[in-house]
Amino acid sequence: MEPLEVSAVTIRVAGDSGDGIQLTGSQFTASTGLAGNDLATFPDYPAEIRAPAGTTYGVSGYQIQFSGLDVLTPGDDPDMLVAFNPAALKVNLKDLRPGAAVLVNTDAFTDANLKKAGWSADPLKDGSLSSYRVLEVPVGMLTANALKDLALSAPQAGRCKNFFVLGILYWLYERPLEPTLAFIRRTFAKKPLLLEANTRVLQAGNAFAETEELFERTYRVRKAPIAPGTYRNLTGNEAAALGLAAAAERSGHPLFYASYPITPASEILQALAKMKPYGVRTFQAEDEIAAVVAAIGASYGGHLGVTGTSGPGLALKTEAVGLAVMAELPLVVVDVQRGGPSTGLPTKTEQADLLQALFGRHGESPVCVLAPATPGECFSSAFEACALAMKYRVPVLVLSDGYLGNGSEPWKVPKLAELPKIDVSHEPGCPPESFLPYRRDPETLARPWVVPGMPGFEHRIGGLEKDAATGQVSYDAENHEAMVHLRAEKVARMAREIPATSVLGGPDGDLLVVGWGSTYGAITTAVRALRAEGKKVSAVHLRHLNPLPPDLPGILKRFPKILVPEMNLGQLSWLLRAHILRPIEGFSKVQGRPFKVSEIRERVLQSLAGEGGADGR
Amino acid sequence: MDTPNKETTPGTSPAPRRVKPKLVVDWERCKGCGFCVEFCPKEALDLSGDFNRKGYHPPVVDDAKCVGCNICELICPEFSIFCKDAEGAPARKGKEPKKTHLAEPLLRMDRMPHIWCPGCGIGTTVNCFTVALSQCGIPREKIGLVSGIGCTGRVAGYVNLDSFHTTHGRAIPFATGLALGNPDMKVVVYSGDGDLTAIGGNHFIHAARRNMNLTVILVNNFIYGMTGGQTAPTTPIDAKSSTSPYGASEPPFNLAHLAETCGATYVARWTALHTRQLTRAMQEALNKKGFSFIEIIAPCPTLFLRLNKLGDGLSMMRFFRDNSEIQNGADTRSVAIPYQGKIVLGKFVDKEEPTWLDRMNNQMSKALGTRHVPYGAPKKEGEAKS
After folding, report:
1. Best residue in B107, B115, B162 to probe A by mutation, most A CBs within 10 Å?
2. What is the rounded CA–CA span in Å between residue B298 and residue B192?
3. Cis amide bond preceding A264, omega within 30
4. pLDDT at residue A459 above 70?
5. pLDDT, tens digit, for every residue of A396-410?
6. Nearest by CB to A453, which of B141, B176, B202?
7. Do domains A239-350+365-418 and A503-608 have the same CATH topology?
8. ipTM for the complex shown
9. How far off is chain A from B172, nearest CA to CA, in Å?
């Protein structure tokens, strides 16, 4: 049969966290990138490192959408679900629309596994899958057959089964085998038996799909019109690490990244630790507090001091962020948000740290807050944060989240020389006798960043309030108030660095969707679709949460309805209502999972029909 | 370890002087603690019957008895008494005639009088520190001083150095960041027992474990002073505090032992009375690579002594005189300080171990060879030792 041409495909692979699901997903992603499609991925893994096999809470998933068109989300509903066991089917079935394909590993559908997953009867036999196209494949048995003449133990052979499935998927979607074969050669270079086994199983899966009548035809997805250049498939956390390193390079300041392990931010420290040969300094501290304080210490010493964490860690760092506000030193804090409060949902995504980032300190303690919208933007956002922190000597918080941090997309590697140069001076600008550590630049209100070790310019700063003129410790009432205003004004002036806000769609219309952070893909895709249907809907996406873009009130005024979808109970809505006197409809989703395009679309339609309500929850 | 400027260490072997130095008393700076009078070996000082403007009795000098040993200059917590070379005295080898307090160039005299109470020992330790600094051979701009919160935490504000006054407990991690990025700087942490070993305890043990290149000077007065006399991790069992009105019952830290077991490469303990030994220990610590730790036992007259009805600062200094025992090289397991019991002093540990940076650079060079860029100061890339 001829291949069926489709514009976009969404696949979800699910199984036990020990089944190699993330590896299967990342291999498929690599092959897809090389096949020339645009793509977006979403790994969804459990908090347990190894939950009991076969149980629903041990189910790990990996979703990818790829297309010949611009891809902004990992897709709403999978076109194809691969379920390695009954638990994976149980957890993921509710996300499937009728007609979707389900590839099941029938070998795993034993009575014991069905019971563990909570199926009262075998779903393959009782008709519960009647509305889906079920592809039953005895993956375990076929894998074992392919390996029967090799001296492998049963568990060793069992671990190869994900490559059998990968072989099937490669045939179905016309992906090349070579990138994964090369990966197998690299990984098992010193283990010839496993090299042979995995190679054979991948090819066996591919051949099985081609010859088995189960699969009638292949699916063809055209190449995406992507600008030429060198692309990397990278996650938001890797992008953030590169952005920090690039800012260090462009500012001529060594990067000092101090951090404490925390999901889902640890990959930034891991990525930067590998960059040590390039002059990046990393320090794994004894706790979150030590990490941020060491970064401030390095910043005082003339480095680009950065720390990274997730919500619980940001809570621990709050006092020290206040210290950097008071001492007026550059500091960048990357918060890869996760479900909270407390330990919450460590591996799931959420956007509920916005107000913590803005206000989670004692005293009047303003900081700049940025938020990347895509995994790739984690690079530019980290870079911008460093530039702003060093220019204004203000802490800058970057709000990424688990979805951006773990999600990936093809990313065009920029040339270092094309990135803006960050000019930072440590010159006191005066002779030692007239040096005052809190004399400000009239433009930015930044104080001089004079580093220790300059004879004659020895100075004492710290957490106590300073006299506005001399920088001496001061408990004077009027001085304190003046300093509170000065620190607020300094952050307010950072608004002049914000580029004009771009509006997706018309400059006016019936409804404006305002988003921030990782909801970008879902909102943009939904609004594009609605506009294609003739709806007068536009969208703006905020990358600057404090200060807000100065042109935002003007944009909001031109729409009678404003809808703010976010993965919290309405934190941006709250902020916008406080700043801009406009009726705002909030749209919350706090499930540890990103918005689907369809959810946004339907909510917009409801709102247009006047069914939203002021809070719309 | 030898001090680099041995021949100029004051007082250890006072050079013969034909013209006696003149003792100068800054009348208004004095808070009348009486340390100088009590511990003058020649009994050349006495408290005046007159008051200064604050109502204290400053000392008066009997010039005939004074030999210019400068013990009073070192022990005075207010920097209000010092020896001045007499007019016409022969120049000392390589030295300008001494006209001011030893501590003067390193202290911000415009900020005096300081906030510490009469009879508090912190000023005395700062006095010793400035002398150690001026004689350790490290240029002033290569010293960074970091303090936490509390009475001792205020040291950072009085020194004429690059210094940073952090939040409560965080002096060590701040110093760690500063020292890692600027390996050619000597970073000193100067803070109290509560700050460094309660709220900052985790940082203390880990910095010692890593052998971070820091000198940690801890003034132990057995109590929280600035916040009102609460129990500290150093308060001895039976001692009263504002939160242990019936006597403390928690076992306190033996800080010297804690530091040693965690990996400190230099550990010494002195009291505010032992100014000569303390100054020497500070010099040694400043020239030591790695985590050097000095615990200084000092009187807190306003809270620890008052709540325990133990008299004033001077009474505590007398107690130090009568109950201290110097045991250099003592096993730190045996040097816990019981309430009103014997205080074992001395240099307990002095060994060579690679610092965090040494180990990291070695490891990186082992793995990467010449591709490794050693950590260095921001402006002088590549100059750091590997």
Report:
1. B162
2. 10
3. yes
4. yes
5. 999 999 999 999 888
6. B141
7. yes
8. 0.86
9. 8
From A331's Cα to the closest Cα of chain B, the distance in A is 13
- The CATH class of the A239-350+365-418 domain is alpha beta
Average pLDDT over residues A91-106: 92
Chain B residue with minimum CA distance to A320: B167
For the segment B229-256, the average pLDDT, to the nearest whole number, is: 96
**Listed range (A303-307, A411-415, B14-18) with the worst mean pLDDT:** B14-18
- What b/e string do you get for B227-251 counting C-beta neighbours within 10 Å, with b at 16 or more? eebbbbbbbbeebbbeebeeebeee
Do A462 and B176 lie within an 8 Å CB cutoff? Answer: no
A186 burial type by CB count under 10 A (0-12 exposed, 13-18 middle, 19+ buried): exposed
Q: Is B237 on the interface with A (CB under 8 A)?
A: no
- In three-state form (DSSP H/G/I as H, E/B as E, the rest C), the secondary structure along B194-207 is HHHHHHCHHHHHHH
Alpha-carbon distance B34 to nearest alpha carbon in chain A (angstroms): 30
Q: CA nearest B176 in A: which residue?
A: A294
pLDDT band with cut points at 50, 70 and 90 for residue B97:
confident
Compute the count of residue pairs across chains A and B with CB atoms less than 8 Å apart: 154
Chain A nearest C-alpha distance from B238 (Å): 33
Contacts of A454 in chain B (CB under 8 A): 141
- What pLDDT, on the 0 to 100 scale, is given for residue A281? 92
What number is the average pLDDT over the span A176-198? Answer: 93
Which of the residues A251, A253, A280, A300 would you substitute to probe the B interface, choosing the one with the greatest number of B C-beta atoms within 10 Å?
A: A300
Question: How far is the alpha carbon of B211 from chain A, nearest alpha carbon, in Å?
Answer: 14
Give the model confidence (pLDDT) of A419-440 as tens digits.
Answer: 999 999 999 889 998 999 999 9
* CATH C-level class of A503-608: alpha beta
- Of the candidates A78, A8, A66, A1, the residue with the CA atom closest to the CA atom of residue A34: A66
Partners of B167 on chain A (C-beta within 8 Å) are 293, 319-320, 322-323, 463
Higher pLDDT, A44 or B240: B240
Residues of B in contact with A302 (CB under 8 A): 181-182, 377-379
Res A158: pLDDT:
87
Q: Which of B184, B24, B206, B21 is nearest to B97 (CA)?
A: B21
Q: Which of A425, A241, A270, A265 is nearest to A335 (CA)?
A: A265
For residue B3, the model assigns a pLDDT of 42
- Report the alpha-carbon distance of residue B230 to residue B212 in Å, rounded: 30
Domain edges within chain A: 4-220, 239-350+365-418, 434-496, 503-608
Domains of chain B: 1-102 (3.30.70.20), 116-350 (3.40.50.970)
B208 pLDDT band (50/70/90 cuts)? Answer: very high
Q: Are strands A511-516 and A304-309 parallel, antiparallel or unpaired?
A: unpaired
Q: Name the DSSP letter for residue A501.
A: P
DSSP at B302: I
pLDDT tens figures, B259-292: 999 999 999 999 999 999 999 999 999 999 999 9
Range A55-69 average pLDDT: 91
Contact B177 A320 (CB under 8 A): no
* Topology of the domain covering A4-220: Pyruvate-ferredoxin Oxidoreductase; domain 3 (3.40.920)
